[in-house]
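>> Question from a student workshop board

For tomorrow's exercise we were told to take the sequence and the ligand below, predict the bound structure, and bring the output to class. My setup keeps failing. Could a helper post the expected result so I can at least see what it should look like? The ligand is geranylgeranyl diphosphate.
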Amino acid sequence: MKLELGRVESYIHAKLKREKLHFVLLDPDDVDPETAGKIARMSEEIGVDAIMIGGSTGAEGDVLDGVVRAIRESSNLPTILFPGSHGGISRYADAIFFMSLLNSTNPFFITGSQALGAFTVKRYGIEPIPMAYLIIEPGETVGWVGDAKPIPRHKPKIAAAYALAGQYLGMRFVYLEAGSGAPQPVPPEMISLVRKVIDVPLIVGGGIRTEKQARAAVEAGADIIVTGTAIEKADSLESAREKLEELNRGIKG
Ligand SMILES: CC(C)=CCC/C(C)=C/CC/C(C)=C/CC/C(C)=C/COP(=O)(O)OP(=O)(O)O
Ligand SMILES: O=P(O)(O)OC[C@@H](O)CO
Ligand SMILES: [Mg+2]
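>> Workshop helper replied:
Here is what the output should look like for this input. Compare the format with yours to find the bug.
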């Protein structure tokens, strides 16, 4: 049995020894391949650490492949799939967050979709990275699509219990998700309790739009910050660059 970590996961751990990481999420349903390529190149220039690709709706097939290929052609950053289901797998990506939505009420999002996608991941030779995915209020689209019972914002202990359960089940990352475009990010008190309880790296995303919010999440104990909407919604590539720089400053200090 081979238990070595894959290339992307080793890269993440090596970098985490020195700094907090910034992953940029691109949704193939919202950005065309050309723009995705440009944002990925800019991200690399600015010091972002990886590009995640996915969406809860429509990020599949040709549309997904086109965006992943464009990103690979324009930058050397690792590409990590962030699938809404087994439909969100592309042969062109380096790795996939092989995630289980632990607080879903629907077994499809806990183990079902994973079983349907497992052989595809193996056939394509994509590196699977096991991850516990937890939806925090409000949860937005992904909370609704994923049939989640969102964890109340003022109940950090529930999040910590799920996170520790995820680690004990063998998951090597925990992701606290407020939902893409959430009006408020995950509360710092919740981030710090989860950080105290688990040993694996903690990813936080959803609703992080400013340098201040990014810094607050990192200071509370997040290891990796995911940003998507703030960059996607910029009205020009120039303002996307400024936003990326601002968020990166908050994360890297
Ligand atoms: C590992 C495999 C094969 C499947 C896992 C499938 C699971 C558990 C999915 C969780 C539920 C889900 C719908 C996740 C979507 C994650 C995601 C890509 C969210 C962010 O998407 P955005 O595109 O930013 O948000 P919108 O979809 O709201 O635009
Ligand atoms: O789009 P935003 O709000 O940055 O959220 C990023 C990510 O956590 C969504 O899955
Ligand atoms: Mg989206």
